[in-house]
Amino acid sequence: MFTAKDIMSKPAISVTEDHTLREVLEILAGQHFSGMPVVNAEGKVIGIISDTDIIRYSQQLKVVPLSNLSGWISPYAEISDLASMKKGFELLYKTKVSEVMTRKIYSVKDDTPTSKIAQLMSRRNINRVPVIDSADKLVGIVTRSDLVQCMTNE
Coil, strand, or helix at residue 115? Predict the structure, then answer.
């Protein structure tokens, strides 16, 4: 039976709550991630920031005239909407991770069986689980993709 240690990505790329959403978006896009852990100065996981968090936040601010949570911009957007979108993006880019991140986190230790990780992800409807050590410091991350890869190797 595989454990988190066997399939986790390490080191996990993370940000702090003082990073801006612009920095997060650049990392997410550059690494082809959909989310990542947020850590404090001691390396302890204090949250998760995901593309869903950012899209929801941008909708709350009415930054982008989205048709739904899928993130698609309406093809019927007016030119004046495009100018306000630019201002909205500037505001969004300056926002700190602490304002948007999900603070309720579910983490696992490195000896957690993959079956337990899969159950946790399914039950909590989450896409990634930080792997922490005995001092609650981030040592890796297990994503749904890691679980799928593990299944193909069993």
Answer: helix
Q: What is the pTM of this model?
A: 0.82
Element (H, E) at 56: helix 51-60
The domain spanning residue 75 has which CATH number?
Answer: 3.10.580.10
Domains identified in the chain, total number:
1
CB of 62 within 8 A of CB of 119? Answer: no
What strands, in cross-sheet order, belong to the sheet with 108-109? 108-109, 128-132, 138-143
Half-sphere exposure of 66 (CA within 13 A, CB side): 17
Range(s) of the domain holding residue 110:
4-153
What tokens appear for 71 in the block?
């993130």
What are the pLDDT digits (tens) for 64-79?
A: 554 444 555 555 555 5
